[in-house]
Specification:
Spore Coat Polysaccharide Biosynthesis Protein SpsA, Chain A; alpha/beta; two-stranded antiparallel sheet
Length: 233
């Protein structure tokens, strides 16, 4: 079995929060969001090491306020982020010490990922090479023009909302990132880079509670998820 590395990407400015601090460091029921995300990965027996990608200027802050509260003993390597998410992921991939590893790339502001889903991602990546958590679209989806007029209603059958983690064979995702960098292609997620190269990404049913915390409303929802016991690892 390959060694598995969790790459947690937390290089965002968090501008939509308007909180004066990067969103990944905001407190969620007494702990920084990022600490809770790291704990979720550290709790998984599948994860050998964690690569944490943050702005280089935040290294001291992370050691003092994020990693000190983590304290599981599982190795966490701080890596400097880039000017955008794709560059930050690329930096994280370059820091993986095992060339034959499986990697799980995850948003630092998704603290509610379960050991079960991590296990399923590892299994699928080792069988198929690439996968992503996601949830099927349940609402009606409209194609809307710039004017605001509805152009048509999309068939939602087969439409999914992608989540993270997304899991890959390290060699394949590094190759996809290198190809994207060569032509200046910027994808909305890492799976899209594999797709652009002709690879197939398999979807795994995730959880509606695996929320990405980017707005004040998301943070309130996350508090409710914890208070109501909706996230059970």
């Amino acid at each position: 079995m390959k060694r598995v590395f969790g790459i947690i990407v937390a290089g965002g400015e968090g501008l939509r929060m308007n909180a004066g601090v990067r969103k990944q460091y905001l407190m969620l029921s007494g702990l920084p969001i990022l600490t809770r995300t790291i704990r979720s990965f550290a709790a998984s027996a599948d994860i050998a090491e964690i690569v944490l990608v943050v702005p280089e200027a935040d290294f001291a802050y992370c050691r003092r306020h994020v990693l000190a509260a983590h304290a599981s003993g599982k190795p966490v390597h701080l890596i400097a982020g880039g000017p955008h998410r794709q560059a930050s992921v690329r930096n994280g991939l370059a820091a993986v010490s095992d060339a034959e590893a499986t990697v799980l790339i995850h948003d630092g502001v998704r603290p509610f990922v379960s050991r079960k889903h991590i296990r399923e991602c590892v299994d699928m990546a080792e069988k198929k090479g690439a996968c992503s958590l996601g949830v099927p679209v349940s609402d009606t989806v409209k194609q809307v023009a710039a004017s605001g007029a509805v152009e048509h209603t999309l068939d939602r059958h087969g439409l999914w909302l992608a989540q993270t983690p997304q899991a890959f064979d390290l060699t394949e995702i590094c190759r996809a990132h290198a190809e994207a960098q060569k032509i200046g292609f910027c994808g909305t997620d890492d799976a899209s880079l594999i797709e652009r190269c002709g690879g197939r990404v398999h979807m795994i049913a995730g959880s509606p509670w695996n929320v990405k915390i980017t707005t004040p409303a998301d943070l309130k929802l996350a508090e409710l998820i914890l208070q109501c016991g909706l996230f059970r690892d």
